[in-house]
Fold this protein.
Amino acid sequence: MKRLVIDTDTGVDDAQALLMAFAHPDVKVEAIMSVAGNVGVEKTTANVLKVLDVVGQDVPVYRGCDRALIHSLPDASDAHGNDGLGGADVSVSQRPIEQEHAVRALIRLANEHPGELTLVALGPLTNIALATRIDPDLPGKYKELVIMGGAVRGKGNTEIVTAEFNIFYDPDAAHIVFSEWPMLTMSDWEVTMNQGLTAAQFDELRTAPSPRGQFFRKITDRTVKRMAEFGRTTFLLPDPLAMAAVLDPDCVRHAEKRFVEVEVVGQHTRGQTTVDWYGFSGRTPNANIVIEYDMDRVFALLKAAVS
Ligand code: RIB
Ligand code: CA
């Protein structure tokens, strides 16, 4: 049984990734930490609870940081809707959250279950950076860290054109995590852009008759409209791809270990993830970069998520 702790700025694709995790028979979600990113932390926290209502699972939820470590930046509500779930008409959950802060919970759980928990980061790394500063031994206490983040050849998705949103939103936090964690699995924006779903596949997920399928449809109506406006024919899966790497490592068809740093001062590049592809730095690789997924296996996880 793979035991997960998920740190998320629950927006549309985070919610899809959460559905995948809850649908996997060999996975137990031990805790979910919210963080600001796609939208504010009150909304991302509320969105986690909405997903728990859909899947009917009781998992402790911990509210995390409401802003980046140093410089607050705009959210991604343009992409995810003002509520973070595509403006979907999803009832507000009455579930309670834990009183303990997400950062404290990240540390406590690692110390209570050393080496047993897989940490999955689907949003900015603010909570994880602070937890790492408070407990410098944290990286050795989690079994592994898998993140959605970065743009390994500088093809980003933000106003800093070489930066991907999760890193762009809190580059200082990302710098701490990439500097202090000896290894992490990195599912970046570029593999996301290279490996999306076809319209037919996306429609198959959106027409699943189950309550989870109906939720998936509700939260992706806005996505479909935006894709049509942009003339895009593939549907992107940033967080679901990272989650697929956790749920079924055989989904990863090709990955390469490289040394990665986060730019924190560049006027035009703050938030860029710079990759030492040829070993010129002489630095030890700290990231296992996913280059290619087996999309048949990914799609199978998504179909299970809405079944
Ligand atoms: O750049 C994509 C990432 O930013 C995804 O995790 C999405 O949910 C947003 O957080
Ligand atoms: Ca996210």
